[in-house]
Amino acid sequence: MTAGQRAFRPGRRAVLLSAGGLAAGAAAASVGWALSESSEASPDPAVMPVVISPDDDLMREHGVLKRVLLCYREMTARIQAGRPLDAQDLHDAALIIHDYIEGFHEGLEEGYVFPRLVKAGQLTGTVTTLLLQHARGRVITQFLLGQATPKGMASPGPRARIAAAMQAFDRMYEPHEAREDTVVFPAFRQIVPPDELADLGQQFADLEHQQFGTDEFAAMVARVASIEQKLGIYDLAQFTPQVSQYTPPA
Question: Could you give the percent of the chain with pLDDT greater than 90?
Answer without folding.
Answer: 74
